[in-house]
């Protein structure tokens, strides 16, 4: 049981609280005051225990303050994971490396070594194995964006009643809406149900507990006898789903639904009649649909909005009521071309009509550069114009590059249709929860995942990059329209192997179908080769391709003289580790003994001096606190006991703060453990070798062992004899032989040997060790945040819990006393009241008869 602070003893009147007593009404006595005086002894005992408890809490806090600083000192200056580990000899080793020689700019190095190293040549740099695929298999979209519909601009067109429109609902008391995607065509009731379910998966509501739920977990739409029907996914659902009248009226009319309809255990939401294809669209003239609309184009990063003229304007009539002898189709193409020329430059983006038949316009927008690096996209546009359901059949976000946020079904639907999906152990095709076939994707013999038509290219790329076992990373360059697969293993050790089929030989590999196949082998010279294939949909086979580009992995090769012996070194990267030196090449040069790159190294004096300076400051701070707590006496002139709640009620915050400062004074005065700790630290640095390095112990008794640093001496020592500095600080403890009580001998650490930090670590572990079955002395006594279990299990905490038990028993006793006295006084009041009543009655009898 953790105890945090003293709670002042409750007054008897507050404990009296709910007791049903009419104090002194008959007797005239102040029974509450009398009871309070009678239980004062018990109450005082409770207060005394609470004050004792508070003092222990303050002592615990004081111990923890010191032990926390000791732990921090140890972590910062003796931990192997610290960048300022003064107990590591490596911290003091030469780490600033300077190169010299004709090719010194091509070589860099770090670290330290005792070997004599010269770099005599770099014949080649490392190269990562990469395979580059242009776009996706079967998508020849590097130059143009084409519409999927032929449009009769002089006639009428189907306009979706649903695209871009909303259905609004209320689930319980939470409202939400779904919007029909304009990048989808709705030709049947099933198309509508599928889209509603998809959008329910995108809609969410927040619950009262702060969590949120996706609405497809609660509701689904289906087609029942040609009607759109809504059902709860849980037959025991207690909430209602209401279709709100604020939904788009066009949608309600098209689906034959009514605003205000409710889905419950007994009522349902369902179309009033069969939903036909003719319900989902309406016919309008093409000119009316296009009037005043826009399309937003982006070409090589520049965005422009191309607007169709408003109806009956001069420009509109010039297109749709031509007098120039051209067709409406030709006039619209000319108009769009003019607008795009003004936006991006003459013929940078070309507009064409792919259908030469009269009154049959199919738009195509193409980039004209031969560099294959120009990017074009149609980002958005007016409803019924841009979107798969729009008049031209051009999707929002359509681009001459792969849109990786789109699904496999949207980009490669025909590819999936001609693939063999994954089968289970029974030979049955595996599907996801929605009934979509699963297709396996594998690289380097590692299955990345199984995907459906609803999976986006982005998702597959993320999965590849997260799978370290596959040893491949993938990126997509819009500018180059390339998917680049790079091996994560450098040099000749890297591979990007993509098999045509999965291991079982019956399942197609989705990776090969989407991008291409890569098969490795060796030639007659035992050199690695790679054969690259594209899948040809027409023949249904893989054919060798020159479109796929390979950059072969290559090891870096370096020649070096190491202690006078020439060595040829290879590495999968441009970095080599040579006897503690990390050497990196950034260019090649011919092997030469006369122009070899040589190295000189020295210690990083600034780093070492800064670390030691910081250590001196931190060490002195903790020593100050230890000595202050140990030597500060309590104020013997006045006894400062912890305040009770009643006392605090009559004081200001500042008065309370000043009082408690006095009360905490001297809590650890002359503490034996602190005295031993202070002595253990005080003489650590009294060493003539340390004095030579600029580390001095103060001779002022008042400073009680504080140390100082002479930076000039330390820097001079680092320049002349860095090994001596390292030895003085970082040498490990030696061993000494001791004779045990039984006469046997054993070896133990010699705590008087080694560097000063190793000897300091002995003291830090002794008093503030946080690991092992037995922790440091101060942590065993008071606990520490750095050893969480010790917060609940330490000697002071045990005392606090014992006091809590005493307080609980005394409180129960106080309550019993008050109950006993209250009952007695209540009985007395009743008796006196009865006597008074009898006396009054007798007096009344006497007065009436005589």
Features:
23% strand; flat; five-stranded antiparallel β-sheet; alpha+beta; 5 domains; four-stranded antiparallel β-sheet; 22 helices; 850 residues
What's this, in brief?
Helix content is 33%, strand content 23%.
Q: Helical stretch count?
A: 22
Q: What's the story with the biggest beta sheet? A: 5 strands, antiparallel
Measured distance between first and last alpha carbons: 75 Å
Structural class: alpha+beta
Q: Low-confidence runs (pLDDT<50, min 5 residues)?
A: 1-6
The residue fraction in helices comes out at 25-40%
- Number of discrete domains: 5
**Rounded radius of gyration (Å):** 44 Å
Strand order of the largest sheet: 1-35-3-31-32
Average predicted local confidence, pLDDT? 89
Would you report the number of β strands?
Answer: 39
Q: How much of the residues is beta strand, in percent? A: 15-25%
Shape: flat
Structure description:
The radius of gyration is 44 Å and the shape is flat. The chain has 5 domains: 54-89 and 606-633 and 658-788, no CATH class; 94-126 and 555-602; 144-148 and 285-399, no CATH class; 159-283, no CATH class; 408-551, no CATH class. With 850 residues, it is an alpha+beta fold. The model is unreliable at 1-6 (pLDDT under 50). The strands form 13 sheets. Strands 1-35-3-31-32 form a 5-stranded antiparallel β-sheet, with no helix packed on it. Helix 2 (31-38) packs antiparallel against helix 22 (795-849), helix 3 (40-78) packs antiparallel against helix 20 and helix 3 runs antiparallel to helix 22 (795-849). Helix content is 33%, strand content 23%. The chain starts with 11 loop residues before the first helix and ends with a helix.
């Amino acid at each position: 049981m953790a105890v945090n602070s003293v709670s002042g003893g409750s007054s008897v009147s507050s404990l009296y609280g709910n007791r049903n007593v009419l104090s002194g009404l008959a007797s005239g006595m102040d029974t509450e005051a009398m009871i309070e005086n009678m239980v004062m002894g018990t109450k005082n005992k409770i207060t005394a225990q609470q004050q004792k408890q508070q003092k222990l809490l303050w002592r615990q806090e004081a111990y923890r303050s010191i032990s926390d600083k000791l732990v921090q000192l140890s972590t910062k200056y003796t931990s192997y994971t610290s960048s300022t580990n003064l107990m590591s000899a490596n911290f003091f080793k030469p780490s600033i490396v300077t190169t010299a020689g004709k090719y010194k700019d091509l070589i860099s190095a770090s670290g330290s070594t005792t070997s004599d190293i010269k770099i005599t040549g770099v014949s080649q740099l490392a190269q990562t194995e990469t395979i580059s695929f242009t776009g996706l298999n079967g998508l020849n979209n590097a130059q143009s964006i084409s519409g999927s519909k032929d449009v009769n601009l002089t006639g009428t067109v189907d306009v979706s009643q649903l695209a871009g429109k909303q259905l609004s609902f209320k689930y319980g008391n939470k409202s939400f809406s779904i919007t029909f995607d304009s990048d989808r065509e709705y030709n049947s009731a099933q198309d509508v149900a599928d889209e509603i379910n998809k959008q329910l998966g995108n809609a969410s509501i927040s619950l009262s507990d702060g969590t949120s739920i996706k609405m497809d977990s609660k509701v689904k739409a289906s087609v029942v006898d040609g009607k759109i029907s809504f059902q709860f996914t849980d037959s025991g659902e207690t909430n209602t789903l209401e279709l709100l009248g604020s939904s788009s009226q066009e949608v309600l009319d098209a689906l034959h639904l009514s605003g205000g309809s409710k889905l419950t255990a007994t009522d349902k939401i369902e179309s009033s009649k069969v939903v036909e294809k003719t319900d989902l669209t309406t016919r309008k003239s093409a000119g009316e649909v296009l009037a005043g609309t826009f399309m937003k184009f982006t070409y090589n990063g520049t965005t422009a909005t191309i607007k169709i003229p408003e109806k009956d304007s001069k420009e509109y009539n010039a297109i749709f009521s031509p007098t120039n002898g051209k067709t409406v189709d030709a006039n619209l193409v000319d108009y769009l071309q003019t607008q795009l020329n003004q936006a991006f430059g003459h013929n940078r983006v070309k507009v064409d009509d792919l259908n030469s038949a009269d009154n049959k316009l199919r738009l195509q927008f193409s980039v004209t550069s031969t560099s294959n690096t120009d990017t074009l996209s149609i980002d958005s546009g007016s409803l019924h114009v841009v979107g798969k359901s729009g008049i031209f059949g051009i999707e929002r976000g359509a681009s001459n590059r792969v849109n990786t946020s789109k699904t496999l079904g949207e980009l490669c639907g025909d590819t999936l249709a001609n693939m063999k999906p994954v089968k289970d152990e029974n030979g049955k095709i595996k599907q996801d929860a929605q009934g979509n076939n699963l297709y396996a994707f594998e690289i380097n013999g590692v299955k990345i995942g199984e995907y459906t038509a609803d999976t986006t290219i982005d998702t597959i790329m993320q999965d590849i990059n997260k799978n370290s076992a596959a040893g491949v990373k993938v990126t997509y360059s819009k500018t180059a329209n390339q998917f680049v697969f790079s091996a994560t293993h450098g040099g000749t050790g890297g591979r990007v192997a993509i098999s045509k089929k999965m291991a079982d030989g019956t399942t197609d590999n989705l990776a090969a179908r989407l991008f291409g196949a890569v098969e490795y082998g060796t030639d007659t010279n035992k050199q690695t080769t790679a054969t690259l294939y594209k899948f040809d949909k027409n023949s249904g086979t893989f054919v060798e391709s020159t479109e796929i580009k390979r950059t072969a992995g290559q090891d870096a090769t370096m020649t070096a003289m190491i202690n006078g012996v020439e060595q040829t070194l290879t590495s999968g990267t441009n970095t080599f580790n040579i006897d503690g030196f990390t050497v990196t090449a950034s260019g090649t040069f011919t092997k030469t003994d006369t122009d070899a790159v040589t190295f000189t190294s020295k210690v990083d004096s600034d780093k070492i001096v800064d670390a030691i300076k910081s250590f001196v400051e931190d060490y002195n701070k903790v020593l100050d606190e230890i000595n202050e707590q140990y030597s500060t006496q309590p104020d013997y002139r006045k006894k400062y006991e912890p305040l009770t709640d009643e006392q605090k009620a009559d004081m200001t915050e500042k008065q309370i703060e000043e009082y408690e400062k006095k009360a905490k004074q001297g809590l650890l005065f002359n503490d034996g453990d602190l005295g031993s700790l202070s002595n253990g630290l005080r003489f650590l640095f009294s060493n003539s070798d340390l004095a030579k390095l600029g580390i001095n112990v103060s001779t002022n008794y008042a400073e009680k062992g504080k140390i100082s640093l002479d930076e000039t001496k330390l820097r001079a020592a680092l320049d002349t004899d860095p090994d001596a500095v390292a030895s003085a600080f970082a040498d490990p403890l030696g061993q000494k032989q001791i004779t045990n009580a039984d006469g046997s001998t054993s070896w133990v650490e010699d705590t008087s040997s080694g560097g000063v930090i190793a000897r300091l670590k002995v003291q830090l572990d002794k008093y503030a060790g946080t690991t092992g079955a037995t922790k440091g002395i101060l942590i065993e006594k008071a606990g520490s945040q750095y050893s969480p279990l010790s917060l609940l299990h330490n000697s002071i905490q045990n005392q606090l819990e014992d006091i809590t038990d005493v307080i609980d028993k005394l409180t129960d006793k106080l309550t019993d006393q008050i109950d006993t006295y209250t009952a007695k006084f209540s009985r007395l009041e009743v008796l006196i009241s009865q006597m008074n009543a009898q006396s009054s009655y007798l007096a009344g009898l006497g007065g009436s008869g005589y």
